[in-house]
Amino acid sequence: MIYKSKKQILDSKKIEAKGKTFEVKDIAYFKNNILPNLVDTIILSESKNLKNFCYQLAYSCGLSLGIYPASIQALYRACGKKETGGFCVPAINLRTLTFELAQTIFEIAKKINSNLFIFEIAESEIGYTWQSPQEYSALVTLAAIKQDYSGPLFFQGDHFQVEVSKYKKDPKQHIKNLKKLIKQSIDAGFYNIDIDSSTLVDLSKKELDAQQKLNYKLCAYFTKYLRKIQPKGVEISIGGEIGEVGGVNSEPKDLNAFMQGYLKEIAKLEGISKISVQTGTKHGGVVLPDGSIAKAKIDLNTLDKLSKLAKDNYQLAGAVQHGASTLPNEAFHHFPKRGCIEVHLATQFQNIIYDYMPLPLKEKIYSWLDKNCYQERKKEWTDDQFIYRLRKKALGPFKKEIYQLPTELKDKIKAILSQEFSFLFDKLNLKNKKNIVDKYIRRLT
Q1: How is domain 72-352+405-440 classified at the CATH fold level?
Q2: What is the pTM of this model?
């Protein structure tokens, strides 16, 4: 049911308004009667004001139940000092069915006694999935309430990226837009932000410092901005990047050049906590003409060397692996062993949803792609490659239809993805990590 007004939500008397905050008075009633309607309203309502109220309500009710947004900075700093480690944190991008899949993650987390995982969304995904940071954090928070989870929620802005064409055309405006996105995300509880200015690395230049200069200068600029606007008592975890995913593999000399220049730029400020590197993977994998995915070739030695260098020389938590969704299963147990602190996962979850989507809806989506995304098609692509590459662009326009899939089908998708998440959490060594998180992550009073 879609709520029509704020009054309709509050008339149940099960939520008490206290100024601008709210407190759940009857948890069972809230979970079974109010919460499902809040999710419906967030996804299906056309009222911006009512949706904003639902975001505020979800956040406030979450706080009243011990669910709060947090920065992972203190834990990553401890990893950089080698006080703890031996695990790899999954950063999970939920592009659709966010409420349902977040519930699945919380179910698994409770079984393995862990709260060491990140919910993230990239700038590009915000656009094509039609999920604002406020909506994303609200849906995850409501999923946490539904599953009786309490504790920190790590929300992360993934690939807040400097786009080369936009930067060259109007650098001031592009930077202004990124700052606006960062501020909006922080206001939604995203206390972990990955800055990706690696797009500006220029390997045509001979000197290493010159290659990385624009990258480290802009990363330092956004670091200063983040430290200036971060909420009182919060030290936002910031990620940097030295090699664009899908490009040339990173080397120790690249990391040194970036960090030496970056540290000079930020002076005594608290800097980045981790560094994303390129090890041979590609976002979404490499699509073959028949639509299948080529087996990725990941350079684990590069990941190992750069993680060790990041910790030993710069006290960073370690290197970050992007584009890992389509890696073979046998790759994932290597990440904790190679010092990889964080692995980003998205495409495979989307693929599974498409695999189980009803054929009529899939055909409707593919027809929409033909009409609306044909200009993005490369001449050498087959139909299968075109669909695989661009079907993510349909997740926003078909958001409501996907959400309204039959419950039994969504339950089947959740069951399949539960196996995926369970496998990943096991291989990334997340079992019984709740005590470690609780040791380093404190709730603001």
Answers
A1: TIM Barrel (3.20.20)
A2: 0.95
